Amino acid sequence: MTQTQQQPAAGSPLVTRGLTKRFRGGQVAVDSVDLEVPAGSVFGFLGPNGSGKTTTIRMLLGLIAPTAGEVQLLGEPMPKAQLRVLPRVGALVEGPAFYPFWSGQANLLRFDAADSTADPRTRKARAGEALERVGLSNAAGKKVRAYSLGMRQRLAIAVALMQRRELLVLDEPTNGLDPQGTREVRHLIQDLAGDGTTIFTSTHLLAEVEQVCTHAAVMSRGKLIRQSSVAELRAELRPRLVVRTPDLGIAAETLKSLGVTDLKTTDETVEGDAVELPIEKFAAALVAADVRIHGFGLERPSLEETFVALTGEGFDVAQ
Amino acid sequence: MGATQRSRRWLVPVAAVAVVAGVGTLGPVVADASPKLPGISAQELLAKVQTAKVDGLSGTVQSSADLGLPALPGVAGGSDSPSGAVTELLSGKHTARVAFAAPDKARVSVLDTMAERVWTMDGKSAWAYDSAEREAVKLNLPAHQPGKPAAGTPKSYDPQSVAKQFLDAIDPSTKVDVSGTEKVAGRDAYKLRLIPRADQTTVGSVTLAVDSKTWVPLQVTVLPRTGKDPAVQVGFSQVSFDVPAASTFAFTPPKGVKVTEPKTPTTRPDRPAKPIDPKAVPGKPNLKAGNEPTVIGEGWSAVVLVRGAELTGANGPLDQLLAGAQQVQGSWGKGKIVTSKMVNVLLTDDGRVFAGLVTPQTLQDAAAKAPR
Amino acid sequence: MSPSSAVAEPVAPAARPGRYPLALFRSELQLVFGRARTWVLLAVLAGVPLLIGIAIKLSGSEGGGEGFIGQVAGNGLFLIVASLGLSLPFFLPTAVTVIAGESLAGESSLGTLRNLLTAPAGRSRLLAAKMVALIVFCLAATLTIWLSGLIVGFALFPVGDVLLLSGTTIPLGEGLLRALGIAVVIALSLLGLAGIGLFVSSLTSTPLAAMAATFGTFIVLGILTAIPQIDVIHPWLLMFRWTSFADLLRDPPYWGAIGKNLLLQAGYLTVFYAAAWARITSRDIV
């Protein structure tokens, strides 16, 4: 769908080709997905719940085997090269999972010990730094059983931060966090991206993509329907003329006579595609028609509205 | 990694099952492969066996018996009763350690589950020890009878004596041949096969595995006329012909063990197992003392007659067994026949018991000939 | 198709895999022995000699009765052997079933299996670590009984030279060593069951279901072992030679049945470990 797909940028840390997962029941969870994540990008992987994001991420990390297609992480095939590749990849898959009877620090140490490339001599120090970075230093010795969901989410991010990673694959990293925590995680992601780490983060929240991502891809019903830079997406959006007025009928008629198409009327506003500019013409015409204008201007639609238009469904809706 | 490639991994456990099953079943077969030995005639082999003499031996003996006797829940487990001990040795598998240096220097230890029964003679005294009861019985051996083994040595664990019993029975009624070679207890052995000519018997063949160096029988296998599984097999699983140290036969009663010492050496009918003898079959019903068994016929078709057997009373399992037995009658009267793979027993209503390794019809013929 | 040939060297030097492969094994032991549940199991096992010892002490019997139990009052060392023997049919298999059932199904149900595999632990190595931890637990379980039996036996009863099954006597020190040998043989006797448990645990994400299925298999095998009509298959059944441990108390020890028992356990372990490996390396981890 995008131009970049045909000529992959050299060194793209995450590439998939025709990635497909058909579950035993015959249900196709992921259907021929071609992803290409540019190096150094913060890549938003967007889609409603149940659109196949988590299944895709599991295939990226070698947790489940694709029915067809292939995955390349850091230039090497998965899952064949997983023991070489995964130490350089930080991952958070489908919610935080820990040993509840152990402290947060003990959990970090165990997952780090599972990585045979991790130096045991620096393990404790690295755990301390990772906990510090996600703001859990004070709760390091507390049993995870006593952690709130937000704390667990942060601990899960700490697992990914135990080592310097070239790529972070994060599945819904802000899930369960309060607004403050969400802000902190977004800052953390931006920090990490600033260090040159490529970040692939899935989310069902558009605000997240708009605030932190440089690139985005949209999944819907197992298919990848859009993939490009966020700036590119924004540029494509056409502004709409919005008039806030109590005289809805007259306003709509006036605008129509001036060639405005796709008119929509709500309780307080009339809006439509203002093909011809400048917009002063419309203001003058409305005033001339004795329309009381409470508000007047051009509004760019949000990404959300765009994606609703793309996917034909709303976000935050479980299927 | 495709689905087929992943499902191929299951070939590994499948192969593991094949290897484990193969090693478990074929391993012993491969180890027992027929060794190459110079040819020998049955007569030569018999002569060698009868003159075989070793200064001493020690080893482990495995015995397994499946006479096809119906399981008698009340009898099989109880090794305390005389009939129980016999039934126990005539069924199931047993392992024993044996050592032999002279007729009055011998030791047999039956390795029971978490227990052990020991009989040993050191030339002066004989001991029987039961670890489960922690009781020992001491017998002083008569000094003037050095050649005769004291009663209490269970011969059934000594393949040599078992083989001799069979060899004594060889007469024109039996066809003898050398049926090949095999490995027993890691030693090369000839197989001497005895096949009864009479068709009244239930014995198909008796095979002795004879060591090709010492000419000591290492294993006895009795096959029934029908079926391929041995009814009785007694043999060494490990054997050494070094003379065991004298200390092997010594027994010092340990602290805490009750020692009984009968004044006169009496035979203890319960402990020693009877030799496996085609002519004598242990009667299952309780025998009244004083009723000496008589033998009708000879050779393979011999039938043992016991009179006055008590067949009624509170003998629960036996009653059950008899209830299912076949009713027969003839000129000799009426009775019931209990049949099994090898041993058949005829119990007449007038209290006589005919038993033998013979067909039920042979039993009835014997009953017709027998005096009332 | 593959851009890998054009990839520049990554920023960080490529990590060398396998530099610290044993760290996972150590961590696995910490997981098994860092749980209260494990210590409860071991405490129950340690309580077996205590209960038996107190019961014998209270009943006041002086060396009567058959078997090892009957010898406890006369020699405290037999408390070790009797406790090990009495724990073998039920307590020890239960403990092994709990730990084995938990091993993979527990990680699966917590979701920590995902973290381990993306760490990456490597599926084969993780399975090996689980198995090693199970073996160590089996040893810990029987050695716990050995130690507890030693302490209770020496505290409550007289001790001295040890009467063997063959009717000969050995010094106390050698007796303790043989009892230790029995503990090790019994631990190894449990490995077949541990293998079954590991495999069942790889099939499910519910530890309780894995434990129930493993224990059910154990019960079925026990019932089959008790049916005389099918004695043809008995030598192939897991527990057929479990009582062979007592052969260490003969003079000299009889190794035949112990060897066959250990071979049988090795056979079960090989088959079920291979099956667990096939399962865990081909399974979709969700």
TrEMBL record, chain A:
Keyword field contains ATP-binding: yes
Domain ABC transporter: from-to ranges: 14-246
InterPro entries in the record: AAA+_ATPase, ABC_transporter-like_ATP-bd, ABC_transporter-like_CS, P-loop_NTPase
Signal peptide: none
Cross-referenced SUPFAM superfamilies: P-loop containing nucleoside triphosphate hydrolases (SSF52540)
Gene Ontology MF, one: ATP hydrolysis activity
Keywords: ATP-binding, Nucleotide-binding, Transport
Protein family (similarity comment): Belongs to the ABC transporter superfamily.
Name the UniProt record assigns to this protein: ABC transporter ATP-binding protein
TrEMBL record, chain B:
Stored InterPro entries: LolA/LolB/LppX (IPR029046), OM_lipoprot_carrier_LolA-like (IPR004564), Sporulation_related (IPR052944)
Basic and acidic residues bias: start-end ranges: 268-277
Chain positions covered by the region annotation Disordered: 254-293
SUPFAM superfamilies: Prokaryotic lipoproteins and lipoprotein localization factors (SSF89392)
This protein's UniProt keywords: Lipoprotein
Record-given protein name: Outer membrane lipoprotein-sorting protein
Organism: Kribbella sandramycini
Automatic annotation (TrEMBL), chain C:
One Gene Ontology term of the molecular function aspect: ABC-type transporter activity
Keywords: Membrane, Transmembrane, Transmembrane helix
Keyword Nucleus: no
Oxidoreductase keyword on record: no
Record-level GO cellular component terms: plasma membrane
Sequence intervals crossing the membrane: 36-56, 76-100, 132-157, 177-201, 208-230, 262-280
Pfam families found in the cross-reference section: ABC2_membrane_4
Protein name in the entry: ABC transporter permease subunit
Organism: Kribbella sandramycini
Lineage of origin: Bacteria, Bacillati, Actinomycetota, Actinomycetes, Propionibacteriales
